[in-house]
Write a structure and sequence with these properties.
Elements lengths: L4 H23 L13 H4 L6 H7 L4 E6 L4 H17 L3 E5 L16 E9 L3 E2 L4 H7 L21 E8 L8 H12 L3 E2 L4 E4 L5 H20 L12 E5 L17 H4 L14 E13 L4 E8 L12 E4 L5 H10 L9 E6 L12 E2 H8 L8 H7 L6 H12 L1 H7 L7 H8 L10 H7 L6 E4 L10 E7 L2 E3 L6 E3 L1 H13 L25 E7 L13 E4 L6 H15 L7 E7 L9 H11 L3 E7 L9 H7 L1 H9 L3 E6 L4 H17 L3 H13 L3 E5 L1
Parallel strand pairs: 1-2, 1-3, 3-5, 5-6, 5-7, 19-20, 19-22, 20-21, 22-23
Antiparallel strand pairs: 3-4, 8-12, 9-10, 9-18, 10-15, 11-14, 11-18, 12-13, 16-17
Helix pairs in contact: 9-10, 9-14, 11-12, 12-13, 17-18, 19-21, 20-21, 21-22
The structure holds flavin-adenine dinucleotide.
Flavin-adenine dinucleotide binds next to strand 14, strand 15 and helix 16.
């Protein structure tokens, strides 16, 4: 049915009307910071996408752009921006790449510096918020305002800074910063200092960043003639206590992520990375429980949310910090007694973003919005020194902030969080002089944790399963056991579902009923992230899956799906799963289920196991793969899809190497030629990884 003009006008009116409605809902009339990280919605919030205009409006001449997926790049950009102001008096701001257009980079004034702090994601891809920028700047002929060609060096007046966040266990290590840097150079721009690279794979990200930034500041000082001054702390946020409000007041956020949740109408917005669905957990169990490890299986119901998934996607769980650690931090900061005091947090400068909606309470901020359990940054300790409770504590924290080795020995290797560090530096003392704004500036926004969905959408369209090992790390010689935030939260939910009145795994006492008891029953906030890790559309294609430990999660979904298709009478291709764990009797995930799938799939399903601690010699999945070299290569020649899921640091790399070797040996080629074939499998999407 064709639309006539009137229909179109009515539709346009509806769209504009609802856009206005959402803007009001999201940002409120008085609270423009109700939701952060909305990317393109910056325009809705009335902000221009023109870099030059935005900087001029805010009276800034340095912009630290970030391409961030998990928040680290954003954190680094924000730290650099603050340091630029505090140490050098620069007028500096941060910028989310997806909030800007880049056509007028050729018109950026000469006294302006742009910085790019860029994480590389997955297989050398840009982070979600950097896709458009990346495609534009690395395109063959980016069109700038003045219309100059690449040969004319349109960005010859642009000065920039570059730092990348990557992981050397991935093939395309730091490819984002490398490619963007090369593109900017080609366009004639001048870099200040070197293009820094941080390596998460080697566990040196923070130290790489710290040492790079000192050389960058030196270069900046020399290039631009900057004067360094005594660093002055200027709070990025104003904290105002609201005596007129109590936690019972309707307008006070107690951990709700946005105004829709506050008003009990979370469905007013689509559920996504900015608006979690508070999902009921249908069932939960422990797949194995040993003295030092346990693994959860949970079935989370998406019915009524409009969320959908396809096999191979990820579910993101929004964590809550454990009460024990919230209280520890409140206490060490001397604000435990006013934990429920209502406060407004507003940016001291129009370019700063408050990472949660306000008015809220100290307790809600630390419990729901900030990573308070994460590793501590050495730079942050140095910033806390002026606020130490005694001269002795000041000297000690200064040392930790400046001496890498001492910091590693006393803080990082102990796996302390910030409150534990402050307790250890000054036992029994209260750090009451630390401005609360500094805590918000020094700690990062809490991040949802991803889980590879372990159920098939063909089998259970509305219910996603997760398979998660509960993180628990006994620090060698240390004083405490590190407990993963999200997985222990999930464990507490599982215990509640199984009838424990007030579950407190390891004394962590999570607030399981959530803000205003809205998570009561057994609920968890989630959203879905779609991935490219997918079964072939043709079920007759052979597949080979390598999934040790919880890396088996998406493969349970793959096999579940193929078994269902076979039961429905469809032809299904060869389906081989390599699974590895410590002991057959201990942590063999889904041991009984595989038998059922075997019945449905018959000879087309083969499970090959590697139990690393059952025999005299350690056997891993890559060894088993080599033992089945002929069969594996035969299937690859028939167009098999090859999948790897789980540990990025070791397993995925070793499997990649093993496959290159297998191909070479089976086909009488050199190792180099074997590796080339594996590379080609990757680029044609026949080799897919879902690793973390
Ligand atoms: P966190 O609190 O985030 O701690 C995680 C780790 O960080 C700790 O083990 C420790 O090494 C370090 N750490 C934390 N705090 C400190 C500190 N103070 N000092 C030093 N080190 C510290 N996991 C699964 O079990 N199953 C899956 O199917 C799965 N799929 C994933 C898919 C993707 C795409 C990704 C990115 C990850 C996946 N993960 C999966 C991992 C998962 O997202 C979580 O990282 C994991 O469950 C730990 O979360 P947590 O909040 O319990 O631990």
């Amino acid at each position: 049915m064709a639309l006539d003009l009137l229909d179109i006008l009515v539709l346009v009116g509806l769209v504009l009307g609802s856009a206005y409605f959402f803007r009001e809902k999201l940002f409120g009339k008085s609270d423009k910071t109700a939701i952060t990280g909305l990317g393109k919605n910056a325009a809705k919030a009335g902000k221009t996408r023109n870099i030059i205009e935005r900087m001029q409006q805010s009276d800034k001449n340095v912009m630290w752009f970030y391409g961030s997926q998990t928040g680290t790049a954003e954190d680094y950009a924000s730290r650099l921006s603050k340091e630029a102001g505090a140490r050098f008096g620069l007028k500096s701001m941060t910028g989310d790449l997806e909030e800007y257009d880049f056509e007028n980079l050729d018109e950026v004034p000469e006294d302006t510096v742009l910085a790019f702090v860029l994480a590389t994601y997955g297989e050398g891809e840009p982070t979600d918020n950097a896709v458009e920028f990346y495609e534009f700047i690395t395109g063959d002929e980016p069109m700038f305002s003045k219309g100059e060609s690449v040969e004319e060096k349109p960005l010859r007046n642009l000065k920039y800074i570059a730092f990348g966040l990557g992981n050397n266990t991935y093939e395309h290590y730091n490819s984002m910063v490398r490619r963007v840097d090369a593109a900017l150079q080609k366009l004639g721009a001048t870099r200040i200092g070197t293009a820094g690279e941080g390596d998460d794979g080697a566990g040196t990200m923070e130290e790489d960043f710290l040492s790079w930034k000192e050389t960058m500041w030196e270069a900046y000082k020399n290039d631009v003639g900057l004067e360094e001054r005594e660093a002055v702390y200027e709070p990025a946020f104003q904290i105002k206590e609201r005596e007129d409000l109590t936690p019972e007041s309707d307008s006070v956020y107690l951990g709700e992520p946005n105004s829709f949740h506050l008003e009990g109408n979370a469905k007013g917005l689509p559920f996504n990375a900015h608006n979690p669905f508070i999902a009921p957990i249908d069932s939960s169990k422990e797949l194995f429980t040993t003295k030092d490890r346990n693994c959860l299986h949970m079935e989370i119901n998406l019915k009524g949310s409009n969320l959908s998934y396809t096999t191979g996607d990820h579910v993101a769980v929004w964590p809550t910090n454990p009460g024990r650690e919230v209280l520890r931090l409140l206490t060490v900061l001397g604000i435990a007694e006013k934990k429920d005091t209502v406060i407004n947090v507003s940016p001291a400068d129009s370019t700063a973003k408050v990472p949660f909606p306000t008015p809220t309470t100290y307790d809600a901020i630390l419990r729901y919005h900030i990573e308070i359990c994460a590793p501590v940054s050495r730079q942050f300790l140095a910033q806390l020194a002026p606020f130490a409770p005694s001269d002795e504590a000041k000297a000690k924290i200064e040392l930790l902030g400046s001496d890498k080795d001492e910091f590693h020995k006393q803080v990082a290797n102990q796996y302390f969080n910030i409150a534990q560090t402050l307790e250890a530096v000054a036992p029994g003392q209260i750090w009451k002089n630390i401005p609360f704004s500094l805590i918000l500036e020094g700690l990062t926004k809490i991040q949802p944790r991803y889980y590879s969905i372990s159920s098939s959408s063909h089998v259970q369209k509305d219910v996603v399963a997760i398979t998660a090992v509960v993180e628990s790390i006994t620090v060698p010689g240390g004083t405490h056991v590190l407990k993963g935030v999200t997985t222990n939260y999930l464990l507490a939910l599982k215990q509640k579902q199984h009838g424990e009145e007030d579950p407190e795994p390891n004394g962590l006492n999570y607030n399981l009923t959530g803000p205003r008891n809205r998570y009561d029953g057994v609920h968890v906030p989630v959203h879905i992230r779609h991935s490219n890790f997918k079964l072939p559309t043709d079920p007759t294609k052979p597949i080979i899956m390598i999934g040790p430990g919880t890396g088996v999660a998406p493969f349970r979904a793959f096999v579940q799906e193929r078994a269902a298709l076979a039961q429905e009478g469809q032809e299904v291709g060869k389906t081989i799963l390599f699974f590895g764990c410590r002991k057959e009797s201990e942590d063999f995930l889904y041991a009984d289920e595989w038998k059922q799938y075997q019945e449905a799939l018959g000879d087309n399903f083969k499970l090959i196991t590697a139990f690393s601690r059952d025999g005299p010699k350690k056997v891993y999945v890559q060894h088993r793969l080599e033992e089945h070299a002929a069969e594996v290569d035969e299937l690859l020649k028939k167009g098999a899809y090859f999948y790897v899921c789980g540990d990025a640091a070791h397993m995925a790399r070793e499997v990649n190497t093993a496959l290159g070797r297998i191909v070479a040996e089976q086909r009488g080629l050199t190792i180099q030629q074997g590796d080339e074939i594996v590379k080609r499998l990757r680029s044609s999407n026949l080799y897919q990884e879902d690793v973390w």
